[in-house]
Structures are given as C-alpha cells and as structure tokens.
Amino acid sequence: MVINNVEIAVQRKNIKSIHLSVYPPLGTVKISAPIGTSESYIKNFALSKWTWITEKRTEILESYKEVKEKEYVSGECHLLFGTEYRLFVEVNPEEAQTAIIDGDYIKVSVKNKNNVKSVLDDFYKEQLKERIERFVSKWEPILKVHCEGIKYRTMKTRWGSCIPAKKTITFNINLAQKDIECVEYVVVHELVHLIEPNHSTHFYKILENNIPNWKQLRERMN
Ligand SMILES: [Zn+2]
Asked: What is the total count of domains within the chain?
C-alpha cells in the first residue's frame, strides 16, 4: 500500500488490534492488522497517524544520516567548527598532499585517492590544535591551573579526558566538527578537572562560574 508516496508494508495476522511501527534505518512503515481488516480501514488508520509517522521517519532518517560513514569524495559535506564545507578532491601524484579551506570548500590534494581520509584527519587535527592551544592559554591564568601536556586522538564516547595526576589532557579530534563555543567549553571542562578530578558539586560550581551556559553547550554537542 502506498500513501503520500510512502510505501507501507501491511501484514494481516492473528492479532486482536491493528498496530503500526516505523523501523530504522530507512524509516520503513509496517502495519500489522487482524485477519479480515479491510484495505480502507488500514488506510484510514495510517492517515490518522500520519503526523506521527512523518515525525518518526524524519527522526530515523536524520539519525541514520549522521552515523553514515563518510566516503571522502568530492561534493561530500564536512563540518569544520560547525560550518558546512564541501569536499573537493584532486589527485596529484607529483605534488605534496595538502588540505586547505577555499570559500565553501575544503580542497584536498592527494597523491592517491585512498589518502583523502588521512590528509583530512591531519588537517582537522591541526585546525583543532590551534584553537585548543589558544583556549588553554586563555583559561590557564583564569583558572590558575597549568596543563603539562595535550594529546589529540579520535575517541568514540568522549570529547576530552584528563589525568589530573599527570596534568595531561586528551582531546577528541572530532571536536573540530563542533561549534567553537563547544570546543571552548570542553577545554574549560577538562582544565577544571586539574582543580577537581571528579564531577562533584564543587566541579560544577567552578564550571558554572566560568561557562554559565555550559549545559546548553553540552546539549548542543550530543
Ligand atoms: Zn569531566
């Protein structure tokens, strides 16, 4: 059955009442109905839930889009500090590999097209490093802390981590996709761990005093 250009899989089975579900990753709509339910009844049922179906499908498709693996090809959208850029890939076997911002584009020149990801990762790391170092220098005197070492790597579940005993902080390279205010929030968060290692009331009090909108920023990031 097709309603408003959406294909709906209908299954009649030995159940008491009609029900509807939307499944990831493609937002497939399925309706299960008791045996003998008429086509028009099912159609009206679907239409009565249409707002919900549309919202649910959008939600599923959006979240799927976000986790979709990048292909690192020309035309693909990449975020840098919250701004969208299009990727432009050029293969120049004879030239040095580079990545630069040019207007709305991130132009990547590689010796081989399989190198795009690694060149871009280095570029993101450099971009992030510059911002992080600036924020660390800005906030160290304000918080009266000193960070001995900064590392960068890709992490799956956290934006940053701090080892207070060694005064070292690691930042997630994926932070380079986030708004600059969010990057600053993560820097302050990790620096505050040099004062207070745990997420105690004291920790949040210091954070709040310095970044009053930290909750909004955290929400925006996740
Ligand atoms: Zn923390």
From this structure: 3
